[in-house]
Hints:
Elements: H1 7-35, H2 44-52, E1 59-63, H3 67-75, E2 84-86, H4 97-107, E3 112-118, H5 119-122, H6 128-134, E4 139-145, H7 150-160, E5 163-164, H8 174-180, E6 184-188, H9 191-204, E7 208-213, H10 229-235, E8 241-242
Parallel strand pairs: 1-2, 1-3, 3-4, 4-7, 5-8, 6-7
Amino acid sequence: MAGLDLSARTTAREDVEARIAKAWQFFYSDRNVYAGSDGSPLRPERILRAIQDRLTADTIVAADASYSSNWVHGQLRTIAPGMRVLAPRGLAGLGWGVPLAIGAKLARPDHRVVAVAGDGGFAHAWAELETMARAAISVVVVVLNNGVLGYQKDAETVKLGRYTTACHLGDVDHAAIARACGVAARRVETPAELEKALDKALGSGQPWLLDVVTDPLAHPPVSLYDGTLDEQTASGPVQQPVS
């Protein structure tokens, strides 16, 4: 490498940096209609923006499978070299997020660790709350509670024009489950509650769970939905559930 002429790269660097900055500016502007929303139920973009605002150089974020991975990787931006954002793509399925976050915290006890999971994925890992409480593992779990298996519902809708009722979940109080396991918890229904709850949980040094009521119609930007699900959502829900 010492003998390579890097002058062309050096010359081009300023232009590349400008194009990257412009792309980020467009991204923030384009998503602000959702990330800046103070409506309820909360948009996932709004939830991830609140997490983004509280990232530190030693924060580790672990995402569950399915839409949670899309939300985390599509909405968060690392703020320092070496930051870790972990997801199960190609490795594991639903239920990965909380156990992975526990492992990350044990491996890096001096780092703050946040797990982001949908209610469907989190349902595979409720028992790990007892592990967090018993071993005093200070992970902050954020449950995106939208009452549906979001990716399954949307994929069925796009491919079949309708979706099965199995995509709907019951109204589960995950905060109550957490407290029953000895983990501090709060159900969150507004952005104002979210900001305060995140600050309290992240500053506590204790295991915490935030059960955040999330918009069931929200989905990440996926190319499969361009002109299909996006179009339907804009004009109103046309898909009907089937048994």
